[in-house]
Amino acid sequence: MNTPFHLAFPVKDIASTRAFFGDLLGCEIGRSTDKWIDFNFFGHQLSAHVKPEELVQAQTNGVDGKNVPVRHFGAVLEWNQWHDLADKLKTEGIDFVIEPYIRFEGEVGEQATMFFLDPSGNALEFKSFKDPSQIFAK
Q1: Element (H, E) at 83
Q2: How far apart are CA 113 and CA 129, in angstroms?
Q3: In what order do the strands lie in the sheet with 72-77?
Q4: What are the pLDDT digits (tens) for 39-90?
Q5: Are the C-beta atoms of residues 48 and 36 closer than 8 Å to each other?
Q6: Where is the VOC domain (predicted)?
Q7: Cβ atoms within 10 Å, residue 71
Q8: 52, 44, 40: which is closest to 9 by C-alpha?
Q9: Is 93 exposed, middle or buried (0-12, 13-18, 19+ CB in 10 A)?
Q10: What is the DSSP letter of 70?
């Protein structure tokens, strides 16, 4: 069993952050004030703090011919859950940094991945492994 992690990160405002993580991604909302808000992010604790001066434009690094945001966070979902989320995000018109696709198809470590930004410009990656036991496969 994995234990939850905690991540605190800057956002521009509470309203758009609440709508994005709570309404769009379906994260349960925990405690909040006008300066911060907690989310149950797929079993992990996220704390979004209003601090727009801490936001930076994501720099990228080339990976498999794609420009991957270096600073990013996200969740590893079950295969069907990932596909359901990808479909929902497409329906909602999310502007993907990297469109949903399958990496290493038919190989060890086959995985689905997608990247997009929250309303504050924080990069998120959601991924899934066809065989969850291969999450750390080489």
Answers
A1: helix 79-91
A2: 9
A3: 72-77, 123-129, 111-117, 96-103
A4: 999 999 999 999 999 998 879 999 988 899 999 999 999 999 999 999 999 9
A5: yes
A6: 3-129
A7: 12
A8: 52
A9: exposed
A10: S
Binning the chain into helix, strand and coil, the percentages to the nearest 5 are 20, 45, 35
- Give me the domains of the chain, ranges plus CATH numbers: 1-54 (3.10.180.10), 56-138 (3.10.180.10)
Radius of gyration in angstroms for the set of CA atoms belonging to the chain, rounded to a whole number: 15
77, 79, 71, 9 alpha-carbon torsion, rounded to 10°: -20
* Cα(49)–Cα(132) distance, integer angstroms: 32
32: tokens are 């909040």
Whole-prediction pTM value?
A: 0.93
| Rounded Cα–Cα distance for residues 74 and 5 (Å) | 11
The residue type of 16 is: S
How far apart are alpha carbons 40 and 28 in whole angstroms? 5
- Residue 132 main-chain phi, psi, to 5 deg: -55, -25
